[in-house]
Specification:
Low-confidence stretches: none
Largest sheet: 7 strands, mixed
Number of helices: 13
Distance between the termini: 58 Å
Order of helices and strands: HEHHEHEHEHEHEHEEHHHEEHEEEH
Helix content: 25-40%
Mean pLDDT: 94
Length: 373
């Protein structure tokens, strides 16, 4: 007697998320000393964790047998003060990725679709497929900026219920000007949810940051996403948050995991928000080292995308091969073939020493490939 397959048909279509490889994993494969490996694959803050957050984490050591605050009271209060918004506009989550998944499950199904610019964060497509939906990638301009006319046209289709837009965008680093973000928010149909992903917002100059109050005033169906994984140096704590209207917050909240933000994450994130010295130092370091890295790429003849984040997308030739050769030399970067860019790699901006190590390793790999050709 045959049994029917209980697995939902769309589940097999969900693409696995391709993370940056851990240092320990690469050390085992290539017989390297972990301390000698440079990881520039995941857009982490090379300066580490905000000191205020580190102290908050230390103070959690004797409390972790308790469940965290289910309502995230202290974290929400700190975020509301940081954003200048009422507390009922803030929804923390287990990183931005959980919030993206919550949005997909709350607004998408097999009769609905999401749209986003081509070469956008892989979680948009993955979350859409997890909800049984289809994600549609819209064209980008020759300078890698999203084509907002194409995005708006797709966003006006009857089946489209969610539009994702990241600025700066990962993995390209392209910036959508704040004025264009506001124009898109005002032009999309009222019954379409606009999701603005600001994972790298803190790396931008103030003039390049969309006005959150204006966005909230311009439309009812909008969610702004942010994370503590980048400039705040808390990638391992898994904390993100959504900014939205109270009505949408109540829709999204039940979609998340109970106690989704752990105790360590709650206290570390709240403390990190007030560590202005670390945030300013991280922003300044990134600006200086990103320019230095790009100057070297220009002199070495590599094509790259001008970036507004803490990473650079560059054309390397066969990205998978270049990535493997760099790992042999103790440098981990991110090949981006899964984005339809097999000849490109993405490299995070590291410390000055880490960037020097990457430059030296890439020079060696480039020489090998040049001689081989």
């Amino acid at each position: 007697m045959s049994m029917s397959n209980p697995i939902l048909p769309h589940v097999s279509l969900i693409p696995p998320y391709p993370p940056g490889r851990p240092i320990e994993d690469v050390a085992r494969e290539f017989g390297l000393e972990p301390s000698a490996i440079v990881k520039l694959a995941s857009n982490e803050n090379p300066l580490g964790t905000a000191p205020a957050a580190t102290e908050a984490i230390r103070q959690c050591n004797e409390k972790t047998y308790r469940y965290p605050d289910f309502h995230n009271f202290s974290l929400i209060a700190a975020l509301a003060a940081y954003c200048g918004l009422p507390e009922d506009h803030i929804l923390p989550g287990c990183g931005s990725s959980e919030l993206i998944l919550m949005i997909a499950h709350g607004f998408l199904n097999h009769e609905r679709q999401s749209v986003y610019p081509r070469y956008s964060f892989a979680s948009y497509a993955g979350a859409s497929k997890a909800a049984g939906s289809e994600g549609i990638a819209c064209d980008v301009h020759a300078d890698w900026r999203p084509d907002l006319d194409a995005l708006l046209q797709a966003g006006r289709e009857e089946r489209t219920k969610v539009v994702f837009l990241a600025t700066p965008n990962n993995p390209t680093g392209a910036l959508t000007p704040a004025a264009d973000v506001h124009a898109l928010a005002e032009a999309l149909p009222d019954d379409t949810l606009l999701v603005i992903d600001e994972a790298y917002r803190e790396y931008l100059d103030e003039a390049d940051r969309p006005d959150i109050s204006r966005l909230l005033s311009s439309r009812k169906h909008i969610v702004i996403l942010r994370t503590f994984s980048k400039i705040f140096g808390l990638a391992g704590a898994r904390v993100g948050y959504a900014i939205t209207h109270p009505e949408l917050l109540k829709v999204l909240q039940p979609m998340g995991m109970p106690f989704g933000v752990n105790m360590v994450g709650q206290q570390a994130a709240a403390a990190a928000l007030g560590d202005d010295e670390f945030i300013n130092r991280s922003r300044q370091h990134n600006a200086v080292e990103r320019v230095r890295l790009c100057d070297w790429l220009t002199k070495a003849g590599f094509e790259y995308v001008p970036s507004h984040g803490n990473f650079v997308l560059m054309k390397s030739g066969d990205g998978a091969t270049v990535s493997r050769e760099l790992m042999k030399r103790g440098v981990i970067i991110r090949p981006v073939g899964n984005y339809g860019l097999p000849d490109w790699i993405r490299v995070s901006v590291g410390t000055a020493e880490e960037n020097d190590t990457f430059i030296e390793a890439l020079s060696q790999v480039s020489n090998i490939r040049t001689h081989a050709n």
